[in-house]
Amino acid sequence: MIKSKIAYITSDFPVVSHTFISREIKELQKLGLKIACFAIHTPSDHEIAEEDNDFRGKVFYIFPLNKWRFISVHLKTFFQSPLKYLYWFWYLISRPNTQMRDRLRCVFHFFEGVYLADEMKKQQINHIHSHFLQGNTSVAMIVSKFLNITYSVSVHNSTLPMDKVLQKEKMEHAKFLISISEYNKKKLLETDPNSEKKIFVVYCGLDTDRFLPNPKLPEIFTFLSVGRLTWEKSYPDLIEACRILKEKNIVFQCIIIGDGNERQKLEQLVKQYKLEKEVKLVGLVLQEKIQAYYEQAHLFVLSSIIEGIPVVLMEAMSKGLPVVATNITGIPELVVHEKTGFLVPVNQPQAFANAIERFMNNPDIRNTMGLEGRKKVEQSFHIVKNVLELKNVFEAQLVE
User: Fold this and answer.
1) How far is 124 from 114, CA to CA, in rounded Å?
2) What is the pLDDT of residue 5?
3) What number of CA atoms fall less than 13 Å from residue 132's CA on the CB side?
4) H-assigned helices in 81-166
5) Interacting residues of 57 by C-beta distance below 8 A, sequence separation 6+
């Protein structure tokens, strides 16, 4: 049994796009781990799913900032440990091959880390675990240095630009790393080959009992996509595939769930292609309402150019949906081509349209692949099994 009190730190928590983190924490707590939650930013109420209401009032947030406490903590820390304070400030902002804008981010991460160290000391934290190799992990690294404790990271997509900032340094200083795919582990080893012994592959998980098949299919063939409306999701490719299908006089409906900074661009594209009847941008949908959309879809589609292993793919497959997804990163570890779905190259709308049309014309293939997809999630991506693996890594690494 782990006696350490573990701090989980993320950028925003809890938020609907990262329910896999809150589910992981709950499962670890069921297994007896003591976990306290920290986040840099406070999410808006509409970003919190009903299943995460238990976390309300139990998360320490850096922002909105308590300015006077922030100033007093920094003054106290500086006068108690001036050399350590200056050393780690300089370390964070002076790494080679770092762009100026990233150095500025590191300044903020240093100040946030020193401030958070004071709170974690009060809460008697013994180890820090971070999700994503981004700014929150820079904060975790600073906290660990000022409290002389260890930290670890669950790395989801080491190819993102944000994950590249101080990537090697954050890997070197981490006690261990959890990679959510074999692909991602290979990419991490390209950055730091010496880290191989401390990288463990543990897939994210899903409670398949909560995502049971329950089809209520409409007459019109409907395919669904779920994800933030951001550049890495490459929704213009999906909309282009819809244009190709419409030009062939195929009747369909495409539902896109999510919100983000590319919404206006996508709306203009839908209008330009005269796809207002076929393509619906629904916006943000919380977890308690998302299953109704899965149940009214014949197919799930994912057009991303950058991913880890998306939990939305696990959800769709657990609901019995076959999928069309891009053949990138860790996705082939979940989606088996021509067994649980079709994998297509990135930025190939024609290939995407062809795969969708093939499913439209072959209901037997749809049903077979849907059943195989659910089996795949049950066998390799069940949250109880995978969180137990994660707990075993914690126990092995955090020897008292």
Assistant:
1) 15
2) 95
3) 19
4) 82-93, 100-122, 135-147, 161-164
5) none
pLDDT confidence of residue 165: 84
For 361, phi then psi, to 5°, come to: -90, -5
CB 145 within 8 Å of CB 125? no
CA 205: distance to chain centroid?
A: 12
Instruction: Say whether 222-380 and 5-205+382-397 share the same fold.
Output: yes
Q: Which residue has the tokens 């049309």?
A: 357
| Token pair in block for residue 350 | 């024609």
Collect the ranges in the chain with pLDDT lower than 50.
none
User: In what helix (H) or strand (E) does residue 287 lie, and over which residues does it extend?
Assistant: helix 287-295
H/E stretch holding 67:
helix 67-80
Quote the CA–CA distance of 156 and 177 in Å, as a whole number.
11
Residue 242 is encoded by which pair of tokens? 């819809």
Q: For 5-205+382-397, which CATH class?
A: alpha beta
User: Which superfamily is assigned to 222-380 in CATH?
Assistant: Glycogen Phosphorylase B; (3.40.50.2000)
The per-residue pLDDT for range 175-213, each reduced to its tens digit, is 999 999 999 999 999 999 999 999 999 999 999 999 999
CA distance 385 to 201: 13
- Which strands make up the sheet holding 5-12, listed edge to edge? 59-61, 34-41, 5-12, 127-131, 150-155, 176-179, 199-201
Nearest to residue 195, comparing CAs of 165, 152, 162? 152
Token code pair at residue 344: 């297509």
With beta carbons less than 8 A apart as the criterion, state whether 284 and 258 touch.
Answer: yes
Identify whether the C-beta of residue 324 lies closer than 8 Å to the C-beta of residue 342. yes
Tell me the domain boundaries of the chain. Answer: 5-205+382-397, 222-380
CA of residue 279 relative to chain centroid, distance: 25
309 neighbors 331 (Cβ within 8 angstroms): yes
Cross-sheet strand order for the sheet of 279-283: 279-283, 253-257, 222-226, 299-302, 323-326, 341-344
Q: Give the whole-angstrom CA distance, residue 122 versus residue 310.
A: 36
Q: Which one-letter DSSP state was computed for residue 252?
A: -
